[in-house]
Amino acid sequence: MRQRNSSWGLLGLNVDVGKDKVVKTVRLAMLLAVEEHCGSQAHYLDQRINAASDLAALWSLRPNLVNEISDYRSEAFARDYAARITLLFNGYQPAGK
To answer: pLDDT tens digits, residue range 25-37?
Structure first.
């Protein structure tokens, strides 16, 4: 199944961006994933993503995102999508991850 390339094109993968930019980019990618690939019941996840204060909080929401996408798509699709979002963390993953 092919993703809408427009949302990924908006995000980009610039390795020379600051941490604030990474937070905004990851948040946007996760919100787009909820909007495009989750049902209307996922509004709670949308709220949690918006409320996340830093990359560690967004990092911890990745499993929730996979679960929600899996409910409306396949698990393989959800894991592939989450893997691409993980790339957006751009070396800022919490220690030990």
So the answer is: 999 999 999 999 9
